[in-house]
Amino acid sequence: MADHPERPDHPPHPTGPAAPAVAPAAAPDLDALRARFTRALDAVRAPSAAPAPGTGRAALPDAAPYAENLLARWSEPQRRYHTLTHLTAVLDHVDRLAEHADDPDVVRLAAWFHDAVYLPDRSENEERSAALAERALTEAGVDAARTAGVARLVRLTVGHDPADGDRDGEVLCDADLAILAAPPSAYAAYTAAVRAEYHFVPDDLFREGRSAVLRHLLELPRLFRTPYGAREWEATARHNLRAELETLSR
After folding, report:
1. Tell me: the pLDDT tens digits for 7-19?
2. Are 104 and 172 contacting, i.e. CB atoms less than 8 angstroms apart?
3. Mapping DSSP to helix (H, G, I), strand (E, B) and coil, where does residue 143 land?
4. Cβ neighbours around 135 below 10 Å, total
5. Among 41, 217, 228, which residue's Cα sits nearest to residue 136?
6. Using CA atoms, how far apart are residues 181 and 41, in angstroms rounded to an integer?
7. Whether 167 contacts 101, CB under 8 Å
């Protein structure tokens, strides 16, 4: 059983109609997102990669095409939860948790790439997203160590189980799971969006798979690893998970 919080176990390939609509969230600020991506990318690009004046070396690639590619990916029609709204929320949570990270801008880029490749009926989304990060960031002038750091963090979101002392991994995983501690109305919207993404899974199989994921999460000794997450989110998240599991069991 994969312990990604949205993924039923081994969902079948889609055979039914298109995903139903869910209530739309406020439209994300695309210009603000572009600026956030550019700041994070510029912060991690190695100074040695920038051309010295008069050297004749090519300038670093413009961040804009990379931002546009990612925005387009996060806007794909098969998404209902893994959307620009989710991306914005994860980035906001990373900012809130930044003091707990060793390299916050690497974590920010990992947030951008962590579900950049996303097909609900596939199990290799994180691996393909990590490979995309490796290609794009190398091309954009990010050094090998930080590119590898971003890809490692993306792969970590398969299980959301960072090793003790992995401060960057703790921040990304806590930011990605923060939705579990949302207020009741927002948590209900989250679960509805997840169900809409997996519209092709029959109800009984969805309840079975989702319930297994919830039980697994509740059995973990802790959902959140940062001091902030443990203090502010843990209790509410466990309450939400128990309530959803009870609803699915009816």
Report:
1. 654 444 433 334 4
2. no
3. coil
4. 12
5. 41
6. 29
7. yes
